[in-house]
Amino acid sequence: MATFEITKTKKSRLNEINWNDLKFGIYFSDHMFISDYRNGKWDGGRIVPYSAMDVDPAMCTLHYAQSIFEGLKAFRSVKGGANIFRPDMNAKRLNNSARMLCIPEFDENLLIEAMVELVKLDYDFIPKVRGQSLYIRPFIYGTGSFLGVTASETYRLAIITSPVASYYPEGLKPVKILVSTEYVRAVKGGLGMCKAAANYAASLKAGFEAHKKGFSQVLWLDGISRKYIDEVGAMNIMFVIGDELITPSLERGAILPGITRMSVLQLAREWGMKVSEREISIDEVVESYKNGTLKEVFGTGTAAVISPVGLLHYKGMDMVINNNEIGPVAQKFYDTITGLQYGEIEDTRNWILRIEIS
Ligand code: PLP
Ligand code: COI
Fold this sequence. Notes:
Blueprint (H helix, E strand, L loop, with lengths): L4 E2 L24 E8 L2 E2 L3 E4 L10 H5 L2 E3 L2 E5 L5 E4 L1 H14 L7 H14 L11 E10 L12 E10 L10 E5 L17 H16 L4 E5 L7 E4 L3 E6 L2 E4 L11 H12 L3 E4 L4 H9 L3 E8 L3 E10 L2 E4 L7 H14 L10 E4 L3
Parallel strand pairs: 1-4, 10-11, 10-17, 14-15
Antiparallel strand pairs: 2-3, 2-4, 2-9, 5-8, 6-7, 6-8, 7-19, 8-9, 11-12, 13-14, 13-16, 16-17, 17-18
Helix pairs in contact: 2-3
The structure holds pyridoxal-5'-phosphate and 2-OXO-4-methylpentanoic acid.
């Protein structure tokens, strides 16, 4: 077990939080973890009070976006203490993203230990309301100062945490999604399968325009033929057509391999559902809507959890899904995953990292 140098805050931010209106990602807890990469290695890291970080105007990340991140959550368990959901998967994915962006990998165990220490230290920041949690945001960025387009030789990994309510103001109520025909997010060979900051920059204009029209997010089609479904801005997407659960396969290489997606697929297979990871075209979705076999559409993600889609808009056509209500399949996944996260359902799959608080 690593021991970090810990400098505790002199003034807690706990009283600044409006617990009745947490929203998503606007409040931050007292401490953060920092580790720096210099001369070919990461240092052992330290926990310090949450504070602004120095940025040189020529810092390469500001100019060329050599930056990656992760997102996971700690929950207040009904058994006391805290539960983190599948942190090993996030640690692994962070390093997959690192490899794609020429960022040096970070020790996965050390990352998990740092998150555990932070959660222990800032346990009081974990909301007490079911449906809320402490969002953990590890990120790495190049810290070199230069203007040539090249990978940095120095990096910082930081972890901050944020008490959050649901990602969408709608909560578990169905969201409205616009199928983007104008913009694309990623193509095979690009960064689509990484959690790279640049992917989110690429999504902003489409998201902004969708918001103006009253939609929560954009559903991306593949960047080449604009025919096959990729994913939504901050979640993977699933369809229940007839008795089959269908989600786009990861093979095209432009979709983020979501940890919630992976968990839902495992549960579905365990429950004996018919599951397909395959190409699914927007035309197939429209066709199934028209012939009445499209039963449910929902997104999966750490921030989004399980988010039912109540309306899909494509080329002037409004497809109202399941009467704009959450369907039984989405509800069952939501209940099971959140039940595990809050410690109400026994964790038989080793998905939960328990943190005892003394
Ligand atoms: N797709 C994108 C683009 C995302 O940002 C996220 C959120 O992390 C997901 C999918 C879902 O991934 P996960 O379930 O690991 O949170
Ligand atoms: C997450 O679900 O963790 C995300 O990263 C989505 C979004 C907040 C970018």
